[in-house]
Each structure stands twice: as structure tokens, then as C-alpha cells.
Design brief:
Helix content is about 90%, strand content about 0%. It is rod-shaped. It has about 55 residues and is mainly α. It contains 2 helices and no strands. The protein has helices at about 1-5, 10-55. It has one domain (about 1-55).
Length: about 55
């Protein structure tokens, strides 16, 4: 198992590459979800504001 984690002496290059790839994939999934939630919240606020202005 130690050999696997040492990656034949290339672990110093391989593990950061894996970490960077995982981080990139996570951001690629999380960013659009957060953006969608923010846009829905903003659109809801705009709709509420328009409803209030119509009732006045």
C-alpha cells in the first residue's frame, strides 16, 4: 500500500495533480448550483418588488 501512495517516486507530482483535478471538478459542479440559487433569489426579490409596486 505504501508503494501505491508513493507512486513510484512521483507522488510529489501525482497527488497535487489529483487534488487540483478534484478541486476543479468540484468547482465545476458547485458554482452553477450556487449561481442558480442566487439568480432565483434575485428574481424572487424582483417579482416581490413588482407585486408591491402594483398594489400601491
Amino acid at each position: 500500500m505504501i508503494e501505491f501512495f508513493q507512486m513510484g517516486g512521483y507522488a510529489i507530482y501525482v497527488w497535487p495533480a489529483y487534488a487540483l483535478t478534484a478541486l476543479t471538478l468540484a468547482v465545476s459542479v458547485i458554482a452553477p448550483i450556487r449561481r442558480r440559487k442566487r439568480l432565483i433569489r434575485e428574481l424572487s426579490a424582483i417579482a416581490t418588488q413588482k407585486e408591491r409596486s402594483r398594489s400601491e
